[in-house]
Amino acid sequence: VKSLVYLEHYHGELERGGLGVLGKAASLGEAAGVVLGEGAVAVAAGAGAFGARRVYACDAPELATPLPQARVDALATLVEETSPDAVLFGASVLSADVASGLAARLDAGLNWDLTDLAERDGELVGTRPALGDTVIVDVGWKDSLKLGMIRSGALDPVESGGTAEVETFESSFSDFSTLATLVEQTQEESSGPSIEDAEIIVAGGRGLGSPEGFTMLEELAAALGGAVGATRAVVDAGWYPYSTQVGQTGKTVSPRLYIACGISGAIQHKVGMQGSGTIVAINKDPNAPIFDFCDIGVVGDLHQVVPKLTELVRARG
Amino acid sequence: MGADRAVLVSDEAASGSDLLATARALAGALERESADLVLFGQSAGDSDGAVLWAAVADRLRRPVISQVASLTAEADSVTGKRQTEHGYDVIRAPLPAIVAVSDAINEPRYPSLKGIMGAKTKAQETLTLADVGVEASSAGEAGSKTTVLELEPPPSRGDQVKIEDDGSAAQRVLDLVVERKLL
User: Fold this and answer.
1) Most buried in the list A54, A56, A191, A254, measured by CB within 10 Å?
2) Is B91's CB within 8 Å of A181's CB?
């Protein structure tokens, strides 16, 4: 399988999602990367260490802002020039729109939310948990050009130590592709450790009762050497920064241990943390959906259980 | 909920449509309407794709803004604030445009009794694929480029431990976590 992997970059670094996909693509055959936008040429070579033998880069001014439609133009151009068997994406807010737009443009099938890719009898097959992960679906493609988007966090980058040749390319852009413009951008940085790299996450939801409840979680996380996460409901309410949001519109995490405090377990949150090794849930509502998919469930008052747990962890030293 | 009119595209030949086949039919229906603003919701309950709008926007050659958490409309443009992994982007697009809102946009209100009664008199049009200019061969399974090969049950998460807190839950959680070598 000859793949082209779309790599996103942020603040001069390639994002983990795309690099994870790249490692998988390299294990299935020849893998090339593609990097678009301002600074693309500078970051492109870095993909060599993660499995790419060649990386295509385009830094046309139309690609300067993180908007999808001009990226569809650039990728369509590159697909035409290089004829890959598969174009693969790591899921993100931006790449989902790029992948879908490209599917329409090239009339190519797109499978999304994949957790794995394999070659079976010479054909590419994707693994896709569906219907709230109640069923695992093997999906395929009918045509020679296959588009696939991998679930965020499903594939970890593999450092293979190779090098890549960087090739710049030019693209033309459709009239409608640059009509949407970026007016303003707010970046939210978290102060604590990044939740995507954390081995242990202590997360809080509405059940905390107030923003102050997060202090308690920060103490437990500090004692465990972990990071703090939050649900969308509490981020929307302004209780905790967006950069810590776990779920469909936030981060997808897969720590060894995930401690969910006062989180009901709505699907929007579940999709962001179901890949965790062991899930501990503390909630006073015994009917909360999270008790259906946690490993250790505590029905009780988190204001009692969490400080006590922090104390016990500290006492272990 | 406030709609003045509804259009349903319903056709047996549309059964089994993937992203491409769905986008084709929807784009066909939208071309008939030529609305200034097309709004999408967060995602479909079955396929969880959250991608359809971008394919439709490409077919209609219109600008698209997705994952919009708040939206304002001006005379000839819309401005949406969207959530991304890194923060918020404010994006403006001239009309006609396509906007996909995230479920952070609002809490849908409950329909009023008056609204429910009023809905019965609102016009609903049912269209076939032919009405929206899509041939049966470009719709449904025939018009799809992806396939489902096999279905399997998901791997089990293993035994679940449930604890009712009687004051000792914290200790039991710690013991279990240590037992699993997570600390």
Assistant:
1) A56
2) yes
